[in-house]
Amino acid sequence: MAYSRTRRFWHLSLPIAPIGSLAKMAAAAAIPWREPALPKGLDREIERHQQASEIIIGWVQAGAVVLFAIVYTLSPKAFPAGTPFEPVPWVLLFYALFTAVRLWLAYRGRLGRALVALSVVVDMAVLMITIWSFHLQYQAPPALYLKAPTLMYVFILIALRTLRFEPGYVLLAGGCAALGWMILFLYAASEFEGAMFTRSYVEYVTSYKILRGAEIDKILSILVVTAVLALSLARARGLLARSVARERAISNMSRFFAPEVAEQIRDAQEVAENGRGVASHAAVLMTDLRGFTALSQILPPAQLIELLAEYQSRLVPVIQRHGGSVDKYLGDGILASFGAVAPSASYAADLCRAIDELAAISERWRLERESRGLPAPAVGIAGAVGDIVFGTVGDATRLEYTVIGEVVNLVAKLEKHTKQERVRALTTRSSYDLAVEQGYRPAQPAEIRRGAAIDGVANPVDLVVLAR
Questions:
Q1: What is the distance between the alpha carbons of residues 118 and 159, in angstroms, rounded to a whole number?
Q2: Of 19, 255, 294, 424, which residue is the least packed, with the fewest Cβ within 10 Å?
Q3: Region for residue 168 given its phi and psi (left: phi exceeds 0; alpha: psi -120 to 50; beta: otherwise)
Q4: Listed range (106-110, 278-282, 345-349) with the worst mean pLDDT
Q5: Higher per-residue confidence, 102 vs 78
Q6: pLDDT at residue 98, as a whole number
Q7: Are residues 126 and 175 part of one domain?
Q8: Is 172 a domain residue?
């Protein structure tokens, strides 16, 4: 088989020339991948992830430069005397410099879309030039490099682009790889003298003959893998957008509902409808700012809202810390439940522990405001256990999760009754006894007031004072 060495160098620039023709593909990849609108803020989160991914990609590329340099140094070479230059060292030097600049830009967050696209093109061009140089290194016909296993590195480069989470760059990488291999195939065919093609696989692997089907299979494999990865990435990105939007909606709902209620809405297998509820034995708590109605008539609106915000910001975390769920804000009142939204084996004990801490914190808050010369209302607190129904009320246009039951009415009346008893916190004797059974340990002996007549309650009720 005759092969002219001199002709090899006349066409040295041919594999480099396609880089210019790939500029249009690079520009296309620089355009953001079209997809359904992302939730506000998610695009910024993804962009931060993209920047971190480009740093990872940069370090992988730096490792590839080192690996190729080691392999090239250790591999046998047979360049003829008078060779103008060995292409691989120069290509690796260029790629090392390009990778260093790329990493520097990635760390500074200045690696724009056009530069990322150019990086994809350069990655594939460097790999194809390296493969192309094999026939020079081993003084063989160009058909030699068509059998090089180094082609498999294109799949690594394509897979790396999935880290950026934008299918457009995966398509660009795969397109460059397929186009590059097509150019190498055509170049090898044009440089071969004599009967260059064969249909025998055995002759293909044991000679410099070219098997068209094998090269077409390689190109098709690159394109199919690219398409599958791009499609998977597009679907994953859409799923991410929907998942983040859902979690963000739950997070927003948690500002309007108790977190446990928001989770129930999220995890519900069916669409919530009015008229559905679950009966249980639970505890109900109510707090109220005393004298708020009079204050609302004399305080400016801004100061009034500031007062409410301070009050709620001090008390609500205590309720939640003890396992309670805020049901609603009743102007200056707070209605909460224990064991209704999320079942609990210690709902009565949780209620009494919460009341103890609420009483202490609300009193410190009152004294703090008093020391600042601000209106300092006391807080009335009451709680009790009983049968409740937790569920949805409202109509088709607006639903609300709430607790209803006789115990809710009792607690509201108990909170008002704290004024008559001249105490800050009350519960019923039966609720207190159950709390003790569930592990509640009061800081001081219980003060029991038997047979209290409560407005709106038919029969006298034994009460326990939890805070004077």
A1: 17
A2: 255
A3: alpha
A4: 106-110
A5: 102
A6: 83
A7: yes
A8: yes
Which contacts of 215-223 are long-range, i.e. CB under 8 A and separated by 24 or more positions? 215/146, 215/181, 215/185, 218/151, 218/181, 219/178, 219/181, 219/182, 219/185, 222/154, 222/155, 222/158, 222/174, 222/177, 222/178, 222/181, 223/174, 223/178
Question: CA-to-CA distance for 182 and 250, rounded, in angstroms?
Answer: 51
Instruction: State whether 22 and 112 are in the same domain.
Output: yes
* Residues 418, 427: Cα–Cα separation, whole Å: 10
pLDDT higher at 109 or 181: 181
CA gap 279, 373 in Å, rounded: 47
User: Higher confidence at residue 20 or residue 324?
Assistant: 324
Q: CA 349, 353, 359: angle at the middle one, nearest 5?
A: 145
First to last CA, the chain: 108
Q: Which residues pair with 461 in a beta bridge?
A: 452
Mean pLDDT of 428-434: 96
Task: Give residue 200's pLDDT.
Answer: 86
pLDDT(411) > 80: yes
What amino acid is encoded at 71 in this protein? V
Could you read off the pLDDT of 180-203 as tens digits, one per residue? 999 999 998 887 665 688 888 888
Which tokens hold the place of 465? Answer: 């004072």
Residues 171 and 281 both lie in one domain: no
Regarding whether 408 and 339 lie in a shared domain, the answer is yes
- Token readout for 277 is 């509820």
pTM to 2 decimal places? 0.53
Look at residue 258 and tell me if it is in a domain. no
Q: Does the residue 305 lie in any domain?
A: yes
The pLDDT tens digits of the residues spanning 288-322 come to: 999 998 999 999 999 999 999 999 999 999 999 99
Give the SS3 label for residue 327: strand
The alpha helices in 322-428, defined as continuous H runs, are: 347-371, 406-421
Amino acid occupying residue 125 = A
Half-sphere exposure of 177 toward its Cβ, with a 13 Å CA cutoff?
30
Could you tell me which residues come within 8 angstroms of residue 154 by beta carbon, excluding any fewer than 6 positions away?
Answer: 124, 127, 173, 177, 181, 222
Quick one: DSSP state of residue 270? Answer: S
If asked whether residues 153 and 236 sit together in one domain, one would say yes
Average pLDDT score over residue span 43-66: 78
**Which two structure tokens, joined as six digits, stand for 325?**
């769920």
The angle that helices 259-267 and 212-253 make with each other, rounded to 10 degrees, is 140
Query: Within this chain, do residues 34 and 151 fall inside the same structural domain, yes or no?
Result: yes
Instruction: Look at the chain and report how many structural domains it folds into.
Output: 2
CATH of the domain at 414: 3.30.70.1230
Whether residues 311 and 226 share a domain: the answer is no
Domain span holding position 207: 6-251
- The answer to the question of residue 268 being in a domain is no
